[in-house]
Design brief:
Helix content is 30%, strand content 16%. The protein is built from twelve helices and 19 strands. Strand 18 and strand 19 form a beta hairpin.
């Protein structure tokens, strides 16, 4: 298991409790991954007037005719059971004053179906519980502070082991990548610095296909100009509870509960037209007790959201693309699985529905763990030497991150994307190639030179084959 976010921890626990021996490799200490900072909740059809079918409808609508229906159906059907699993593990979700489960409303959802733990501290609460369970599980060996430098492939084409930066090699019947996303490739981001897509590049070096790299979701409400809180996101759930967005004159200009791509683009266009740095989020009518960590963080920085509007603007938040994988997390390389944000099942289409990503970690993390148990035991003699060159997955330079912001931001053009094709970072070039090939605007991908959506590209995913530098359009069922 590579990665100790929500997907990696849950998959590790699932495999261990099925009797498997698991080695969990994590570059950071447990409970310090990107999942820890997740303010959103877990989306699941738990209300009496909700259903997996309604959840599926909203997921497909948000995904702008690119959602892989089979993947979305799996998530929506299995989400309630994974919620129950988390409760059984000891995660305590928020209730209302009557003791019933509190369900939040977020952009793109037609009904309240998002559960939280500690208000907007959901990721923190879940990661603490899962990390504690992993530490107590005797079948799991945790290797903290280690980075995977390469995936080692046997002569039969199967991933057999991982090579770490300390020189160690871990053999396994299956390797599950849960290495997180790539949103930190952009200079303005809500993600921690390590989220630059290293797992995608390691998988590609081993022969795996990548997909949908052009679809990058920008969170609409990341803080601007507050010392110590630049890029800190204010949860979507705050708008679900009545917070509103205003221009410099105090006028509302957007329906705040539209899907994220629509809200982020409305803000971007307003800022472009006016030259302003930020719009303003008014959460003065929202009970501060509902979002204690957001309120506390802003107050620590000298800004009281109970009395002052919060300056916000979009920031890179979530890459819908990743390692192409099936409904059990299998990549296109035998023995290699991908789950969480590093994976691309087609679930999110062109625009992720709010709070589906945390649900995805548990639904597909479990499925990948169970599928991996069916792989053959490793043959340590059948291991081709693999380069452990750290340049397989380099961190982006400051120049690359600025170039990504400029040329692959909320609105792209052919000229900027062609310029980005010359960037030294390999993932930046692949994002540019995918965005250049998709000559339309759809969901989180907007082209100034192709402003309309092309119906002929409905359901057509951009798959970058192993060794290729440009994507091929593929339909997934």
């Amino acid at each position: 298991m590579v990665g100790a976010g929500a997907a990696g921890l849950f998959a590790a626990l699932t495999a261990a409790r099925e009797g498997a021996r698991v080695t969990l490799v994590s570059a950071r200490p447990l409970a310090e991954t990107a999942s820890y900072w997740a303010q959103g909740g877990l989306a699941a059809a738990l209300a009496a007037d909700d259903s997996p079918a309604l959840h599926l409808r909203d997921t497909i609508t948000a995904g702008r005719a690119l959602v892989r229906r089979s993947a979305a159906a799996v998530l929506c059907e299995e989400a309630p059971a994974r919620f129950a699993d988390l409760e059984a593990l000891g995660v305590r979700f928020d209730g209302d004053r009557h003791g019933n489960l509190a369900l939040g409303l977020e952009g793109g959802h037609g009904i309240r179906r998002v559960v939280h733990a500690g208000g907007s501290a959901t990721g923190r609460r879940i990661l603490r519980q899962l990390s504690a369970d992993v530490v107590m599980e005797e079948r799991i060996d945790v290797l903290e502070g280690r980075r995977v430098r390469a995936l080692q492939v046997g002569t039969d084409g199967r991933v057999r082991s991982v090579a770490c930066d300390d020189g160690g090699v871990v053999a396994a019947r299956a390797v599950i990548l849960a290495s997180g996303g790539a949103a930190a490739l952009w200079s303005r981001t809500t993600n921690p610095p390590g989220s630059y897509g290293s797992g995608l590049l390691l998988a590609r070096a081993a022969g795996a296909e990548l997909a949908d790299l052009e679809f990058v979701q920008f969170h609409p409400t990341a803080v601007v100009g507050i010392a110590g809180r630049e890029g800190f996101l204010v949860s979507e759930a705050v708008r679900g509870e009545g917070a509103t967005l205003h221009d410099a004159a105090g006028e509302r200009f957007v329906d705040e509960l539209q899907p994220r791509d629509a809200v982020a683009r409305a803000i971007h266009r307003l800022l472009t037209e006016t030259g302003a740095r930020a719009v303003f989020l008014d959460m003065t009518a929202v009970d501060p007790a509902r979002f204690p960590n957001v309120v506390a963080a802003l107050r620590e920085a000298g800004h009281d959201p109970a009395t002052q509007r919060v300056p916000v603007a979009p920031a890179s938040h979530y890459v819908m693309g990743g390692i192409a994988s099936d409904l059990d997390g299998r990549s296109t390389v035998r023995g290699l699985y991908a789950v969480g944000e590093c994976a691309c099942t087609g679930l999110h289409g062109a625009n992720r529905l709010a709070s589906n990503s945390l649900t995805e970690c548990f639904v597909f993390g479990r499925r990948a763990a169970l599928a991996g148990l069916d792989e053959a035991a490793p043959d340590t003699r059948d291991r081709a030497a693999a380069a452990t060159d750290p340049e397989l997955a380099p961190a982006p330079s400051r120049e690359t991150r600025r170039a990504m912001e400029r040329d692959a931001g909320l609105e792209r053009s052919a000229d900027g994307l062609r310029r980005l094709l010359e960037d030294p970072h390999p993932l930046a070039r692949l994002v540019a190639a995918s965005a250049l090939a998709r000559e339309e605007s759809r969901g989180a991908h907007a082209r100034g030179d192709f402003a309309a959506t092309n119906p002929e590209l409905d359901g057509r995913h951009s798959v970058v084959p192993s060794g290729a530098t440009t994507p091929t359009p593929v339909e997934w069922t």
